[in-house]
């Protein structure tokens, strides 16, 4: 074997990465590192000897452009898990999941109209800071703690899945490649801050898009064209778009995908710190809405490509299922197998595909490192511990946090393959965090009379309820009590095409009627259940314990769609919440008089931008 070539085993065959593939993959890592170096040295301290401000490091000074921010938003959500998992979902369960694109569109509209205006008004450093302004520090701490636990648990998954794919096609040790990629990500995130993250995400998403499109085009040609692909999928029963089965146990139905998908996407994209931080890196609400529009369209296009890839894979293996024939061990290996068998002979294409998968992983990882460090500083160091530090010390803390989280990701990479429950745990925690925090934010922004006790008890109830459903479902699945019902596959041509003699028996599914009903629910319903619980319990508790006086609430804390529920007196307090938090050294009553006088003189709500310009 040539010294420049290494190989991996996949599907019973040997495939090789040559120097061109490694060069493409290495160029991706090198460009990532150079981006961080560029924006690190582009900061003021490289020009005038002054250190870049913390605000510039964490928010890009609020003067980013819509297009790169939109690309960064896409990159942070479309991870390597998405690229490998979505085609497998379509292959195994049909195209009903494709309807998620409609949910994404609806979610983008709701975010821009309902949630975005509140964050643009307040200009909070951490999205969870809103919960202290609206309710209390306790509610803020609950949400930020869930966020931190969720992100830390998800870190190793982001790197392990693409590292496994790389190992399968190249034979290089999972831990080695994962560690190198993590080090590169830590380097450019620590050095360049949000600007490096956003611009690296931008070209990484372009590489990811190009890699998947190239594979799809070449694969479609090899199968015989789009018409043949759809014909084979129709014969195999994969074309399902209107499954109106009302059962909540149905994995993919029209109702579960649209409703559950909408709630999940909105819960993540509307209030999660990783998203809000980039929304507020833009100079105006108009440009933020433009970025959200580009983000929504981009995600819909990319999900469409991933779903089509699932049809393409089925059209390729319609007469010999790789998993049942023993050619692969896991569904996530379907796309790597397809790439290597279809376009693996073309030098550089495999390297481009792996670079795209890792680019997606790097994008998600860098965003988590950056946003989580900001949450740690704002919600724990400054809010919970109430420490008042210099900007230089805060910058050091943030960078140490990024470095520490990166080390945790590398450390988990060495143990995640031995802990089969890590992925299930991460998935469950993600559902809990998403449902609980989104429910509390929605309660605060859309229900003006909701109070602190309602938010806190509702949040705890939502976390317990979604945790019960999620962990219970994961246990039932792991114990084999609940088994997903995959669509039928064929093994007729395995021996003729691949020389594989298969003794296959049809799967026997367990009787699920004795399983506790809530543990059998489709995963699409977990987040809606959490959100619904938070809102209902929050409203009930607020009514019982005494509603918030809506006459004295700051209208900036309420979504514009709920301003109809506010009396005219409330507008006297516009800007008071954030002003009280920022001007801790000033007497609040004096401040309120100033705001009231300004309202009377201007006959309008005072602009909060004046207050925000005095932020530390």
UniProtKB/TrEMBL annotation:
Major localization listed first in the record, in broad terms: membrane
Presence of keyword Secreted: no
Record keywords: Cell membrane, Ion transport, Membrane, Sodium, Sodium transport, Transmembrane, Transmembrane helix, Transport
Membrane topology listed for this record: Multi-pass membrane protein
Database matches in InterPro entries: Na/Glc_symporter_sf (IPR038377), Na/solute_symporter (IPR001734), Sodium:Solute_Symporter_SSF (IPR051163)
Superkingdom assignment: Eukaryota
Segments passing through the bilayer: 20-39, 67-85, 97-120, 141-160, 172-191, 203-223, 253-271, 292-317, 352-376, 396-416, 422-447, 454-477, 523-544
Record-linked PROSITE patterns: NA_SOLUT_SYMP_3
This protein's record includes keyword Cell cycle: no
Entries under Gene3D superfamilies matching the protein: Sodium/glucose cotransporter
Subcellular location: Cell membrane
NCBIfam families: sss
Family as reported in the entry's similarity comment: Belongs to the sodium:solute symporter (SSF) (TC 2.A.21) family.
Protein's UniProt name: Sodium-coupled monocarboxylate transporter 1 isoform X2
Organism: Nicrophorus vespilloides (Boreal carrion beetle)
């Amino acid at each position: 074997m040539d010294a420049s070539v290494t190989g991996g085993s996949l599907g019973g065959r040997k495939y090789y990465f040559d120097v061109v593939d490694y060069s493409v993959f290495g160029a991706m890592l090198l460009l990532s590192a150079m981006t961080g170096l560029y924006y690190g040295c582009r900061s003021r301290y490289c020009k005038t000897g002054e250190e870049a401000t913390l605000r510039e490091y964490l928010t890009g000074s609020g003067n980013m452009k819509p297009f790169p921010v939109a690309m960064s938003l896409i990159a942070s959500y479309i991870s390597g898990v998405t690229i490998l998992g979505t085609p497998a979902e379509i292959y195994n369960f049909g195209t009903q999941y494709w309807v998620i694109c409609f949910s994404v569109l609806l979610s983008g509209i709701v975010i821009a109209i309902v949630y975005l205006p509140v964050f643009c008004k307040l200009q909070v450093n951490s999205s969870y800071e809103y919960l202290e302004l609206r309710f209390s520090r306790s509610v803020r701490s609950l949400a930020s703690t869930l966020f931190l636990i969720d992100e830390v648990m998800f870190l190793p998954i982001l790197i392990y899945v693409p590292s496994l794919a790389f190992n399968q096609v190249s034979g290089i040790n999972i831990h080695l490649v994962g560690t190198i990629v993590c080090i590169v990500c830590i380097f450019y995130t620590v050095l360049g801050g949000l600007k490096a993250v956003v611009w690296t995400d931008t070209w990484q998403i372009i590489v990811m898009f190009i890699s998947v499109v190239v594979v799809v085009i070449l694969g479609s040609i090899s199968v015989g064209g789009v018409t043949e692909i759809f014909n084979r999928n129709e014969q195999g029963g994969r074309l399902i778009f209107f499954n109106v089965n009302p059962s909540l146990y149905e994995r993919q139905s029209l109702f579960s995908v649209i409703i559950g998908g909408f709630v999940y996407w909105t819960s993540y994209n509307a209030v999660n710190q990783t998203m809000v931080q980039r929304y507020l890196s833009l100079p105006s609400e108009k440009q933020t809405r433009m970025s959200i529009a580009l983000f929504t369209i981009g995600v819909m296009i990319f999900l469409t490509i991933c779903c089509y890839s699932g049809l393409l894979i089925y059209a390729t293996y319609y007469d010999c299922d790789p998993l049942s024939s023993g050619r692969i061990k896991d569904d996530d290996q379907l796309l790597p197998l397809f790439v290597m068998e279809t376009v693996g002979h073309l030098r550089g294409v495999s390297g481009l595909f792996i670079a795209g998968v890792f680019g997606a992983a790097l994008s998600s990882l860098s965003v988590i490192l950056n946003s989580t460090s900001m949450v740690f500083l704002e919600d724990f160091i400054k809010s919970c511990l109430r420490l008042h530090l210099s900007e230089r010390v805060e910058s050091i803390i943030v960078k140490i946090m990024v470095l520490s989280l990166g080390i945790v990701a590398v450390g988990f990479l060495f143990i995640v393959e031995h802990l089969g429950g890590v992925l299930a745990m991460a998935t469950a925690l993600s559902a809990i965090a998403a449902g609980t925090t989104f429910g509390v934010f929605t309660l605060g922004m859309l229900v003006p009379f909701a109070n602190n006790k309602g938010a806190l008890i509702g949040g705890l109830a939502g976390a317990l309820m979604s945790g019960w459903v999620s962990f219970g479902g994961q246990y039932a699945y792991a114990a084999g009590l609940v088994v997903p019902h995959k669509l039928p596959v064929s093994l007729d041509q395995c021996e003729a095409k691949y020389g594989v003699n298969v003794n296959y028996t049809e799967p026997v599914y367990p009787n699920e009627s004795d399983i506790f009903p809530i543990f059998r629910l489709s995963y699409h319903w977990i987040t809606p259940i959490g959100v619904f619980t938070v809102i209902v319990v929050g409203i009930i508790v607020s009514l019982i314990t005494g509603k918030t006086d809506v006459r004295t609430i700051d209208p900036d804390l309420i979504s514009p769609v709920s301003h109809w529920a506010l009396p005219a007196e409330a507008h006297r307090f516009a800007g008071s919440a954030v002003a009280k938090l920022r001007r801790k050294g000033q007497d609040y009553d004096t401040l309120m008089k100033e705001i009231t006088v300004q309202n009377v003189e201007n006959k309008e709500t005072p602009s909060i931008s004046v207050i925000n310009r005095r932020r530390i």
